Amino acid sequence: MMYPQNIHPKHLIPIILILLTFIACQKTPGEGGGATLIGNITTTIYQLDSLEQDGQITLQAIPVNTTPIAATKQQVYLIYGDQQGEGYDESTRTSYDGSYRFDNLRQGDYQIFTYSECLPEDCLTDTEAIQTTATITKNQEEITLSTLEIKEYN
């Protein structure tokens, strides 16, 4: 059997094992790292009024607060990677100021979402997912996400 001149056959096994270790240890998104995702959720509250026009009654949403306020105790979900339709991997609730965080994450792509109320003419159900994405590229990285804005109807 022919071997490269500089590599003795007894050295090939450790080299192969080292290469397999690197290939097998590729980390996927998820827990076990040192990165953090930080975000905030705000809400605008709407009062629903019915409006009659040309014999038709429609709902009109009038904002109660002109500036979005902190969405407290709002459930927030985290999906590792680009999974679709497989549920979520982690969840938390927002604090008194609408903030949330997911700690100890590895490098990779993440999807963050929460649910907002919506009017029947705007979506098929009474809620819709409001989401954002993030990519962690370094250990110990702290990423501040864009604010998720939800709606509440009274």
Describe the main β-sheet briefly: 6 strands, mixed
> Helix fraction?
10-25%
Oligomer: single chain
Question: Cα distance, first to last residue?
Answer: 80 Å
Strand segment count? 10
CATH architecture assignment name: Sandwich
What is the CATH homologous superfamily assignment? Immunoglobulins
CATH topology: Immunoglobulin-like
For the record, the CATH class is Mainly Beta
Task: Throw out a few tags for this protein.
154 residues, mainly beta, Immunoglobulin-like, six-stranded mixed sheet, elongated
Report on the architecture of this protein:
With 154 residues, this protein is mainly β. The mean pLDDT is 87. The chain has a single domain, classed as Sandwich (Immunoglobulin-like). It has one helix at residues 9-24, and strands at residues 31-53, 56-63, 69-70, 75-80, 90-93, 99-105, 108-117, 127-136, 142-144, 148-153.
